[in-house]
Amino acid sequence: MSVRRNFRRAYVAIGGGLLVILGLAGFALPLLPGTVLLVAGLLVWSSEFRWAREVLARVRAWLADRTAKRRDKS
User: Fold this and answer.
1) Range of the structural domain that residue 35 is part of
2) What is the pLDDT, as a whole number, of residue 19?
3) Contact 38, 20 (CB under 8 A)
């Protein structure tokens, strides 16, 4: 791996981690949109990490299921 790739992975890991931490804090704090920041962190991580892509796919499927259930109730 090149040095540039290692720096990119580090920036992605740190940036995604900060967004995830802020997202988790957003569930407790009223000013931060927790879900939005959590998904944003997963999106950042998914650009570099396979496991994050898999988690993001599960989150998308869960959200699609919830949306479908909400439409059925209406």
Assistant:
1) 3-73
2) 95
3) yes
